[in-house]
C-alpha cells in the first residue's frame, strides 16, 4: 500500500482525509486507485494535478514507478503567469 498525502484543497473531495492508502506501483495506477476509492477526486484529477514522489514532481509520466515506502503527495496543479 502507498500512503498518499493530499493537498488541503483536495481533502474535501476525499471525505476530508489528509492521507489515503491505495494499492499502486505507478503514478497512473495511483491516480486510478484514488478515483476508485474517492470518486470525488475525478474532476480535480482530470483538471490536472501534480504528483510528487520522494521529492520529485512527476508532471505527466503515468508509468513512473512508485515503491510502497515512497513519500507521495497529490497537489492541485498551480496555474498562472
From TrEMBL:
Domain of life, source organism: Bacteria
SUPFAM superfamilies according to UniProt: MoaD/ThiS
Pfam family, one: ThiS
Gene3D superfamilies from the UniProt entry: 3.10.20.30
Protein name per UniProt: ThiS family protein
Species of the source: Salinihabitans flavidus
Native organism taxonomy: Bacteria, Pseudomonadati, Pseudomonadota, Alphaproteobacteria, Rhodobacterales
Amino acid at each position: 500500500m502507498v500512503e498518499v498525502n493530499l493537498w488541503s484543497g483536495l481533502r474535501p473531495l476525499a471525505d476530508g482525509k489528509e492521507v489515503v492508502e491505495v494499492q499502486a506501483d505507478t503514478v497512473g495506477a495511483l491516480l486510478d486507485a484514488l478515483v476508485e476509492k474517492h470518486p470525488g477526486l475525478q474532476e480535480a484529477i482530470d483538471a490536472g494535478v501534480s504528483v510528487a514522489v520522494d521529492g520529485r514532481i512527476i508532471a505527466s509520466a503515468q508509468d513512473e514507478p512508485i515503491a510502497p515506502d515512497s513519500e507521495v503527495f497529490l497537489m492541485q496543479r498551480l496555474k498562472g503567469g
